[in-house]
Amino acid sequence: MNYSKILFALAIALMLPTCGLEAQTVTSPNGNVAVRFSLSQDGVPTYEMTYKKREVIRPSHLGLELAKDKHASKGLEETSLMDGFTEEDCKRSTFDETWKPVWGETSTIRNHYNEMAVNLYQKAANRHITIRFRVYDYGMGLRYEFPQQADLNYFIIKEEHTQFAMTGDHTAYWIPGDYDTQEYETQITPLSGIRQRMKTAVDGNASQTVFSPTGVQTSLQMKTHDGLYINIHEAACVNYPTMHLNLDDKNMVFESWLTPDATGMKGYMQTPCQSPWRTVLVSDDARDMLACKLTLNLNEPCKIEDTSWIHPVKYCGVWWEMIAGNNTWNYTDDLPSVKLGETDYTKVKPNGRHGANNAEVRKYIDFAAKNHLDEVLVEGWDEGWEDWYGHSKDYVFDFVTPYPDFDIKALNDYAHSKGVKLMMHHETSASTQNYERHLGAAYDLMNKYGYDAVKSGYVGDIIPRGEHHYSQTINNHYLYCVTEAAKHHIMVNAHEAVRPTGLCRTWPNLVGNESARGTEYESFSGNEPYHTVILPFTRLQGGPMDYTPGILETQIGTWNPNKKDMYVHTTLVGQLALYMVMYSPLAMAADLPENYAKYDDAFQFIRDVPLDWDDTKYLEAEPAKYITVARKAKKTGDWYLGGKCDADGHQCSVKLDFLDKHAVYDCTIYADAKNADYKTNPKAYVITHRKVRRGDVLKFTEAPGGGFAVSMKRL
Amino acid sequence: MNYSKILFALAIALMLPTCGLEAQTVTSPNGNVAVRFSLSQDGVPTYEMTYKKREVIRPSHLGLELAKDKHASKGLEETSLMDGFTEEDCKRSTFDETWKPVWGETSTIRNHYNEMAVNLYQKAANRHITIRFRVYDYGMGLRYEFPQQADLNYFIIKEEHTQFAMTGDHTAYWIPGDYDTQEYETQITPLSGIRQRMKTAVDGNASQTVFSPTGVQTSLQMKTHDGLYINIHEAACVNYPTMHLNLDDKNMVFESWLTPDATGMKGYMQTPCQSPWRTVLVSDDARDMLACKLTLNLNEPCKIEDTSWIHPVKYCGVWWEMIAGNNTWNYTDDLPSVKLGETDYTKVKPNGRHGANNAEVRKYIDFAAKNHLDEVLVEGWDEGWEDWYGHSKDYVFDFVTPYPDFDIKALNDYAHSKGVKLMMHHETSASTQNYERHLGAAYDLMNKYGYDAVKSGYVGDIIPRGEHHYSQTINNHYLYCVTEAAKHHIMVNAHEAVRPTGLCRTWPNLVGNESARGTEYESFSGNEPYHTVILPFTRLQGGPMDYTPGILETQIGTWNPNKKDMYVHTTLVGQLALYMVMYSPLAMAADLPENYAKYDDAFQFIRDVPLDWDDTKYLEAEPAKYITVARKAKKTGDWYLGGKCDADGHQCSVKLDFLDKHAVYDCTIYADAKNADYKTNPKAYVITHRKVRRGDVLKFTEAPGGGFAVSMKRL
Predict the structure, then answer these.
(1) B467, B520, B528, B553: which is the annotated catalytic residue?
(2) From the CA atom positions of chain A, what is the Rg in Å?
(3) Closest A-chain CA to B271
(4) Residue A270's domain is classified under what CATH number?
(5) How confident is the model at residue A6 (pLDDT cuts 50, 70, 90)?
(6) What pTM was computed for the model?
(7) Angle at CA A188, nearest 5°, toward A187 and A190?
(8) How confident is the model at residue B15 (pLDDT cuts 50, 70, 90)?
(9) How many domains does chain A have?
């Protein structure tokens, strides 16, 4: 743009009425939540948010800083989308629909919001953008939209500057901001305590990139001194880098901090396009944090026409015996390194501890068949595990070549003859380009042998080198795998992948993710007892987690002398409760068959518990303290109850006023025994049977690190 | 390694006899070339090289600097492979075999060398490496070999420090060192003049990364003041970054400078492995630089069992009319940007200048059939060209979806009915990850419609972003495409890809590359008249170039008023000569059919000239001055002659003592007319017919920027 044009534009600007001080407010259907938008004097988009008239988000700026990059559209390299905006118009609408998830906590979900779309014009660069707000009774989402236009076709995001200005020094339940992992223990501090705590909050991981002493991840749960619960996250992160939050701990203002690529740039955009939704949940009742479906509602409807092949999966597998035991993924200990296609495994000496061998897998198949589990996960079945990790090795697996002691055809035939499926395992070692080269053949192999679900893994630093687990390109990779899997009717459960943002609504074959410290950490350093009563508030906001619960032999030392001090930081009953408080359509019975044999009466709950529900009622909830939930099973109409607490224990009374009128239920109660304690007496439990009716009251004493589980089968 | 071990190792070291001052020499079969290896006092591998007792390479160091990277094998992060070596042993051998290339300048190639493999031990890190020398009568190759061993399984190369110490301020024929392009005009300066000339030598390119004011590319041709011709290049660059040369212009020492990845690291190695060959050609006769097959000989034998589907290809195509004309690759001018699968081309307004339309392609098919050309290249046939370049766009093409005016089935059927094939075009826009996602489907489509050759392109900055055109990962990508293509019986001609290093011996379906300024530059800024008589000394050392010669209407302005000042920097006859002096099994007749109609008598040479030879004799050669070559056609036994010169013109006399005894040849001579000149009178030519026999002498006067071409068909 030359000077005369600029002067002309300025002249026009002076003639136009300035609307920089106007403001619009949009309120939620019930009026509890209100969001106010305005432009500052210099045209900076600004919003604020209230709940029942109480301030939740102080005036906060919105905008994006663009990179001065030669790839950006000509002339735009130097103008960011930060200020100089005037408002063109503001469109309002109301939306109210009820949709049916393919699987979930409830059979229907209501998506009811009031919307305000503010259309902004930036004269200096002749560009138009839209900021869209959707306000729900329990929170809001906002996003940036970039229509296709003459002067805005391509741009590169150097940083997004979306602010969330807090009203005080709230209590935060946070994990360190990191471009590559979420496997940190949740920290509970005031906002002002994040910087100090960061030093100890960061422990080692196979791949980690901490970026700021006050950087935290989403979903970020907070609680104010006057009892407001606030949660900041994002929804529908597609073709965009993952958002972290960086805290200005002088002013208690969070600002978005995107994950960069290898060059330090953050997002490569082509109009028409939009950012993910930036979401703020708010309520004075913690249960709303768990019951609200805002993240799912802000995602696109299901894009898979025929979903009949997608189903809940209860599974066991060859896994805990390696993670917590002494068996190995690798077939031999003799190879210093492997070259796939050159290394001849028939000529090496087996180490005798390879878990994924024919006999062991048959044992699990028999166990699954006997206990009506759907599938058997087998890790370490394919060539390459001798040097799979830590070498930045590109061609690390081919995903199709079994070890000599894993007969893929015979084992699948055997499983199918018993009504069980094997679950595929694809460890990519974070070499995404190698995985994509072999993805087609790998999925074809699954189809050939009758696998319908895959657990994928992304351990270690990403290849292409310099990329991060949560950068735009790698986020696109995860979704590419999910969409390609859908074409093959394959369900995906991706570990070490990006934390979910509700994409499972659009792609319900994404049945699980890890993206947090799972049960595996109980065999490393251990998880805090409150871990599983904070995850539903944070990690689970975006989608289900393959937490792999069900470790009834909580004292690993009883069967593995090498880990004699290692124990699960819950009681035995607490493990049962996890199937209730951490919803997932994919649930593992992770312990060894021989351990389940020891506790077969308690294992009955795992056999019984459904993974797909007609209805869910959160009866009690407090972040990192306790969660109590009742769920009604699809088809049978049976009800299940579960409660889990932190290290302090919890007293709980449940009035069964949600049961069907006049119906009688055969009730089995799995409770911590008196004096049960996750540290000192974890496996003390009591199982009682009784009949219950609507209106009955059940009382529970949850032990430290304990909980309870109840099945109520309609007679 | 702990301290006690280090002390122990040192103790051993003191006990061992130091052989650091010993030296070994290996000479070529005829004794002309000698290479001497030694270890310096501190155990630095050192070599020097002589030719007929004259020093060619002064004592030069060998070694690799390793990265201090967490991915390197434990304990080795800090020890480079630079010094502290002792010699274990030294194995010598002689090799002499004659092999048959699938296509080439001669029907057989002799691979005759003396070899010396020096096994070195580095006590400090307990590591063994081998430096292997192969010495030929016209040069040598050396490489590093890394056997698999306990303490050397994975390592990361920070830089390779292979020195080439020159004996003086030689004349160098060089182009600027660059991680992303070779499309520079060759500079001719003393070594001491590189730094100063660099400032003007670097002109703009779609993707370029110059790294040093004295950095140059290989193959680097030099000439000493006393008439020695020296050429430094590399052979068999596989799973390794491309080598550049950086000049210490105080001491006239070149040192290897590898192409980095996005993180700045250069090579990720897993033993057993080796570096590419570092080659030095030397002779006092410039013709040896062209005749020697050292680069091919240092590559692995053909890995394709059935090569019957690989054949020379003479082709025309829908290309020059876009490059030099006003037709477009894109279908419409209405789209500011494209989203494949969303953009509906049936609803947009065609720009009326789209080259790859059914009528135009049929015209070229008819032309090819009439003139017995094998194939027709069609660029711009597939959706995406409206925004294909300059936006760092990932999903830029799908390689399978034609524009509405390109009927892929009908056009292929029509071509096949006339005995002609279409040549596929895959412009990747350097988005290699997108290309790999679609490669399988793209090759399948080619098989479906009967394409057997693809011209691929890599214009612009590489995606994954931060990578370079010549980094290890991207070099692997090019080879991946070639090997996957071989499975589909597809020949590959990759443009903007890495400069070849003789891999076409191993993968003869790699029938062409660009990797230098091609004829297209004649429609931009123009090529120097000497360009095509230096390329055979440099770029062509690694393999054939798809130079797209045959522009008989050298004055573009005669048919395109928009380029009225643009002209090809050769005479018309000079264009014919290119088919002789720049060997390629893939040769385009690049001009427009209507231009060939104007010069049909001259076009006869292009119709006639074979692309595969039984024998080749370089009769005269001087870098950037002139090349005169005679070639004997496979099957027919016909002989062809060609000469090309620079802007100074050239007088040339050829004694036909290579013709078959007693045979008579029908000889057609295409010569520059008197007063012909590439600038002022380019299209003045004379065609004469005569009979010739062995011993006859032909005299030629090559005009400035001119040459000559002769066909001698055995009667």
Answers:
(1) B520
(2) 26
(3) A337
(4) 2.70.98.10
(5) very low
(6) 0.95
(7) 125
(8) very low
(9) 2
